[in-house]
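Lab notebook page, bench 4
Experiment: in silico fold of construct C2
Operator: M.H.
Input chain length: 346 residues
Purpose: comparison with the prior construct
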Amino acid sequence: MRGSAVVIGGGIAGLAVARGLLRVGWSVRVLERSADLPQAGTALGMWPEAMRALDALGAGDDVRAASVEQRGAAILRPDGTPIARIGRGRTARLVSRPALLAALARGRPGETVEWGRRVDGSGVLPEADVVVGADGVRSVVRAVHFGVAPRPLGTIAYRGTAPGAVRAVSETWGRSQLFGITPRHDGATNWFACLRDGADGDADGAGARRTEAEAATRLRELYGDWHRGVQRVLDHLADVDERRLYDVPPLPSYVAGNVVLVGDAAHAMAPNLGRGACETLLDAAALTEALSAAPDVASGLRQYDAARRPAATRVVRMARLANRLSTAEHLVPARNVAVAAAARLS
């Protein structure tokens, strides 16, 4: 089947869907509120299934050329001693968000984007055979057509990049907070920090967002006595991004009439498993396959929903649990013992 699609949102989800549908002969428009693709962003993990989806979308080789391969990760204590090593049997590629977006936008997908096009909350969407809500965790499409708002995770995240290369992925877990470090293909370092609301001195968890300088100062106060790998990043903080974290509760369906949700609009999740972008790419490949093979839109959207919603819902739940576990406030020694035992069994 071929038809027309309007995609609301020109991020990873929207560009991936546009790329997929264009490849099977659909007419596509992408409406994106930003003025252009972002030029900043930290690394995203591309697991093997995400790379297969990128290959199906025709962007796999571009992502391989702009990424670094990584196997496994270490979980450390604040003094640098190991808790566990996880994921030793799986390989992921780490690619920066700008590089992934550029790969997805290359060629015709980028030409379909209408920049500076904001969709309001009136519920009126452009005419098309399919309308794809790819507008992120605070999706207007989801709010209007599915009536579901994101829910807070109770944690705050900071992220950015630092000069200098690292060879390995690590997460350091303390009480109520963690600090992660990953390589980039260009010889720089990605870093991210996560802490429970209130752990940064904001007792009610509702304080005003800090400036970049204030956030950097607070991070040095919170993590300055952690091991040398963390301190090296803290010495070179710049362009610090701070945000409270949310996920999307399980939905009864990703489909309402001819409207379908993909990516964070459907299943925004805690970042702890490194699966958000992967699940988004799997959505795009599955939606493309379902709509191209089905005899009509309704059956294609049902097929997509059946293929993706149960799997994505499980990952959202697992990511929420990982977020709570990694920033646990109590029973930290017992948590570390349990994580080490689970890693040995995996």
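Observations: Residues 4-68+94-151+246-326 form a domain with the FAD/NAD(P)-binding domain fold (CATH 3.50.50.60). The chain has two domains: 4-68+94-151+246-326, 154-245+328-345.
Next step: discuss at group meeting.
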